Amino acid sequence: MRMRLRVEQDVFTLRQLGREVARAVGLESQDQTRLATALSEVGRVLLGEGSHAEVTFTLEPYGVPSLRVTMAHSVEGGASRLAEQLQQVGRLVDTMEVDDGGSGTTIRMARRLPPGAPALTAARMDEIRAGLGRHVPGSPLDELAVQNQQLIAALDEVRAQRDELARLNAELEETNRGVMALYHQLSEELEETNRGVVALYAELDEKSVQLRAASEAKSRFLANVSHELRAPVTAIIGLGRLLTDSFSDPLTEEQDRQVGLIRTSASDLLTLVNGLLDLAKAEAGRIEPNWSEVDLKVVFGQLRGTLRPLATRPEVDFVVDEPAVPSVRSDEVLLAQVLRNLLTNALKFTEAGSVRLSVRRAGAAVEFTVADTGTGIAPELQERIFEEFYQVPGSKPVSGRGTGLGLPYARRLAGILGGGLRVDSTPGTGSTFTLQLPVEP
């Protein structure tokens, strides 16, 4: 669509035509007004330059659909001056370019079509051309009336936006007051909570000190009592041995039986006292490991020899496998003590089947396993067996008597050696105790 801009009357015609074109291609009402205002302002400036202009309306359907307007006039070298004069006009359109060509200055403006605009098909283009061809320009008074209506609508919209902005400001101010009140409330509650937390930490520190003192007192008590009991208990065992010695006066059958009971009870008591003393030392941190390269073949051989007398029942196979790991860096005495406790405990509670000791490499650790075919332990009791003096309800040792101190002591020694002790057990099938130690503690 083209028109020529020659006299001031044509500015009104250009404004009307620009608004009609914008309406026909689907621009919204405000965008129609913006484009029409931009065209009339540019037309006024060009006529002020004393030269006519050619105006061309073009639809660009590809990429980003847009309406483009090109205004060319014959005055050359005025691009920079026009660009400065039309700087405010450029805000009414999406893009605006002013440059000098071979035959004059050209002004290009573009406005993007909204997403909901009708598709620019060939039939639609023909329809737009036909509608614009039937357009009859109005008089300047008609255009002034339209401008007044648009101005009134714009003022109403501005007033509505101003009222909405005032309402939003009032709501924001009210919200800010609520937020500040909530902030002060939360600050006070947080301060109160902090005071409570500080007091709680102080109480916890005090309780920790008391608990540490109680633990030290318990360890000292166990150590002192165990030390004081060992001497008389050992004396009772020695006296019982003297009474039954062949060089002593013969005892009656009943006296011999009673002395045997005394010796057995004293031996059990001595075992308990020794266990308490060992446990007290471990809890007090008085056991320092002596790190060295431990030959596991030697350790396994000693355990096989010292525990063989306990495996006297033919129903139980006592097996100490050849170690699959030749050596490990640890404390030989403490390591042997842990394995001895586990094997002794397994032999006590295994009525038939086997008790087996083996070792294997597991990544950066070494795992010693003591597997038995005893009665097994229920899942909910598998951690309680590592508590002092705890014994599984209903469990009866096949040989000897349990004190409930062997497994707690073994776990503490495992921790001192830098590892851990765990159990996997199924009732009626047996238990597997695993001692895991690092290769390099």
UniProtKB/TrEMBL annotation:
GO terms of molecular function: phosphorelay sensor kinase activity
Domain Histidine kinase: 224-441
Catalytic activity reported: ATP + protein L-histidine = ADP + protein N-phospho-L-histidine
Record EC number: 2.7.13.3
Predominant cellular place of this UniProt entry's protein: membrane
Subcellular location: Cell membrane
Cleavable signal peptide: none
Coiled coil feature spans: 141-189
UniProt keyword annotation of Endoplasmic reticulum present: no
Gene Ontology CC, one term: plasma membrane
UniProt key word Coiled coil: yes
PANTHER family hit by this protein: HISTIDINE KINASE, TWO-COMPONENT HISTIDINE KINASE
Protein name from the UniProt record: histidine kinase
